Amino acid sequence: MKSIVIRQPNELVIEERPIPQPAAGEVRVKIKLAGICGSDSHIYRGHNPFAKYPRVIGHEFFGVIDAIGEGVTDKAIGQRVSVDPVISCGHCYPCSVGKPNVCTSLVVLGVHRDGGFSEYAVVPAKNAWQVPDNVTDRHAVMIEPFTIAANVTGHVSPTDQDIALVYGAGPMGLTTIQVLKRVYRVKQVIVVDRIDERLEMAQRNGADWVINNSVVPLADTLKAEGYYRR
């Protein structure tokens, strides 16, 4: 199979590798689509202190299960799945209180262990989440980024009477806008960025008001509209 490998910082190659076989408790996923995250570029440039090299990057990926390891009974060949890249032990203190993202033996696909920039990847069966048939492939690959927006908004539990300010209209900002407007249906979403192209995308994603704060300071703009009080 072909894999995109970062052998060391600033050295990216396409390698031919053996197709992996799932161990007990694992499934093999034939990758259909994978997203590029900013953290992938950090690993490429050597700016992620946790990355081990050589490394197949990619932690936002989606595919179809094509092999099942011993002991896996709740997955089936042919299932479309989105992969949770965070592998946790399930029994340390953080895991026991519902915080597997800070597991004491945390492993992240594409960082500590090879990720999804390959034709195939083996992952723990519990990390492969079935995707409903009504979710298209191109939307399924965005599930992992949308979990970030779900986590952010879940912490504040906005209502339809709230006004939300999103500072930055990059990929995470855009997904957060969509969740705020289409899930929580907040009253107004204000988005701030310094790049007009991103602000245009914010409007297409549901922003009610966009502000380029490279032109006028944000505080001055909000104050002029009656939003800002000291």
Describe the structure.
The structure is a single chain. By secondary structure, this protein is α+β, with helices and mostly antiparallel strands. It folds into two domains: 2-133, Medium-chain alcohol dehydrogenases, catalytic domain (Quinone Oxidoreductase, Chain A, domain 1, Alpha-Beta Complex), CATH 3.90.180.10; 158-225, 3-Layer(aba) Sandwich (Rossmann fold). It is 25% helix and 28% strand. The protein contains seven helices and 13 strands. The protein has helices at 38-45, 93-96, 137-140, 143-156, 171-182, 196-204, 218-224, and strands at 2-8, 11-16, 26-35, 55-56, 60-68, 80-83, 86-87, 107-108, 120-124, 128-130, 163-167, 188-193, 209-212. The strands form four sheets. It has a five-stranded antiparallel beta sheet with strand order 9-3-5-6-10. Strands 2-1-4 form a three-stranded antiparallel beta sheet, with no helix packed on it. Helix 4 (143-156) packs across helix 5. The longest helix has 14 residues, at 143-156. It is globular, with a radius of gyration of 20 Å. The termini are far apart.
Topology, element by element:
Layout (H helix, E strand, L loop, with lengths): L1 E7 L2 E6 L9 E10 L2 H8 L9 E2 L3 E9 L11 E4 L2 E2 L5 H4 L10 E2 L11 E5 L3 E3 L6 H4 L2 H14 L6 E5 L3 H12 L5 E6 L2 H9 L4 E4 L5 H7 L6
Helix pairs in contact: 4-5
